[in-house]
Design brief:
Number of strands: 0
Oligomer: single chain
Protein name: Helix-turn-helix domain-containing protein
Helix content: 55-70%
Shape: elongated
CATH superfamily of the largest domain: lambda repressor-like DNA-binding domains
Distance between the termini: 46 Å
Organism: Acetobacter thailandicus
Keywords: DNA-binding, Transcription, Transcription regulation
Low-confidence stretches: none
CATH topology of the largest domain: 434 Repressor (Amino-terminal Domain)
CATH architecture of the largest domain: Orthogonal Bundle
Radius of gyration: 19 Å
Number of domains: 2
Structural class: mainly alpha
Largest sheet: none
Strand content: under 5%
Amino acid sequence: MAEKMNISDELLASMEQAVGIAEGTVNPGRSWMPPKINVADIRKRTGLSQVHFAARYGFSAAAVRDWEQKRRTPEKAARTLLMLIDQEPQAVERVLVGT
């Protein structure tokens, strides 16, 4: 039977693993990178202006403009949300209406 770790041992092991991942000596257990996306195409399919798209989905208008002009790339979480907006807009709307 495996020995049970106490919380401080678990935290220390987690910190050591995080350092190893950051240094590239340990592979993360799971890693996912959303694909590159075309923000302008996604926004245009919604029929919204940059300002209204940003306001509806919680982005800054400047970020949407920069993404569309390829000056910046959306972070992982933003890309994930943008993919949901593109592929499952009704689901996103249901969530937003509930807030």
